[in-house]
Amino acid sequence: MTPLPPLPYPEWEQTKETLHLWAQIVGKVKLASSPPKNHWWHVPLYLDVRGLTTRLLHGQDGTAFEIRFDFADHRLVVETATAEESFALGDLSVAGFDERLHAALARLGLDVAIVERPFGVPMTTPFREDDEHASYDAEAVERFWHVLNWSAGVLEEFAGWFCGKQSPVHVFWHSFDLALTRFSGRRAPDLTEADAVTREAYTHEVVSFGFWAGDRQVRKPTYYSYTAPEPPGLTARALSPASARWVESGTGSLAQLPYEDVRTALDPRATLLEFLQSAYEAGADAAGWDRGELLSSWCP
After folding, report:
1. How far is CA 243 from the centre of its chain?
2. Mean pLDDT, the chain, whole residue set
3. How confident is the model at residue 1 (pLDDT cuts 50, 70, 90)?
4. For labelling, which of 61, 137, 156, 228 has a CA lying 20 to 30 Å from the CA of 202?
5. Contact at 8 Å (CB) between 94 and 130?
């Protein structure tokens, strides 16, 4: 087993915020180059063998292309079947990244207009004006990529235990978290007071799971789960392992397990699977899902 690396958030916070904003720019290009799908499943990024990718996109003339964060060579790559543009990541500001990406897309005849400002994050400076965020610790990014890849593998295994509707394992660039979502199949009450993004995301009952590296509020990498809409009595239900906790997030209750507890466990994979299953049972049972009907034949 490859040892999981430490990922203390304060040590690479500036790099993480810079990378997050870069991912938002790429994500918005994907949003502008993809037909809509339910629950915003047309916008996430995906893990590949070298980093993060948009997967297949199409330009306005139908040209197929892909944008990749290559965390092995630390480059941003835009590729078509016949041409490639790339540039080094390095200590590049958000404004510089935005300029170089649009220039690369323009040379390939693929550029699109995007809303040039961050979404859903504390950072508010428009991308084209942001020279403040310009940090890139390559070693920390490689450790982050390693953790994402390992976590995605465990989430893929966990996904195989469920035979109902569920999302791919993907990276949402607005919050920069790795996520997997299970659905009961029932519609949720309409969120008439919520914004359009939230309304589309939560049209149906879900139990969602994921990993985030930390942010200004949660100062350490953490695995999480939540149930939406949140059913009564959710937080009275047990979680495991013993270090897992229910935490109030302001928008609801989160089951949380620190990454460090998984990393240092005798069996990290079994520890994470134990947490995911306990959070699923808590949410699904509190919400009255028929877990037997949703059980895959691959579930141990």
Report:
1. 23
2. 96
3. very low
4. 156
5. yes
pTM of the shown model = 0.96
Report the C-alpha gap between 263 and 272 in whole angstroms: 9
Give the DSSP per-residue string, the chain. Answer: -PPPPP--GGGGHHHHHHHHHHHHHHHHHHHHTS---GGGTTS-BEE-SSEEE--SEE-TT--EEEEEEETTTTEEEEEESS-EEEEE-SS--HHHHHHHHHHHHHHTT-------S--SSS--S-GGG--S-----HHHHHHHHHHHHHHHHHHHHHHTTB-S-B--SEEETTTTEEEEEEEEEEEPPP-TTS-HHHHHHTSEEEEEEEEE---SSS-S-EEEEEEESPPTTGGGS--SSTT-EEEE-SSSEEEEEEHHHHHTSSSHHHHHHHHHHHHHHHHHHHHT--TTTTB-TT--
Q: Is the pLDDT of residue 218 over 70?
A: yes
Rounded CA gap, 95 and 140, in Å? Answer: 22
Determine which of 123-127, 195-199, 240-244, 269-273 has the lowest per-residue pLDDT on average: 195-199
Torsion of CA 14, 17, 23, 29, to 10 degrees: -120
State mean pLDDT over 81-109: 97
Identity at 63, one-letter amino acid code: T
Residue 175 pLDDT > 60: yes
